[in-house]
Amino acid sequence: MKTLDEIKKEHGKIEQYMKEIEVIMSAEPINYPNLIHTFNELTEFWDKHEEKEEKLFELLNEEGFNIPIEKIKFEHGELRKHQNAIKDGMSSGSEFKLKESLENNGKEMIKKIRTHINFEDEFIYTIPISQFKESTITKLETLKLQRQLIF
To answer: How confident is the model at residue 144 (pLDDT cuts 50, 70, 90)?
Structure first.
């Protein structure tokens, strides 16, 4: 199913961004322009991805699949807190505050994103597509078309 495959591919792209941020964070001195650029790309991509996921998981839940939407949304909110803390560190103008934010929030955010993606992938990889009703497939395709128009 293309919609589920898209989510899986996007998880891979998020992992690429995180690996790049880890390299940037471990370098001395930190390449601030690269960090800012990569972090902004990650957060922009993540925001769009998160919106898609929430729509997808709500649809699947409505169609009878047991998806823990509240837990997923809660984790999305927790990740946003780390994103905002890093943004504050980047805009502070203080190298010390930025490094402190990266040390605390950057590493924690990456760890939580990886755990979160693994949690979501368990649902995506184990959903028995053969059990999809025709109406579910139609709704997923409609969701895909809406995404193409929105994004």
So the answer is: low
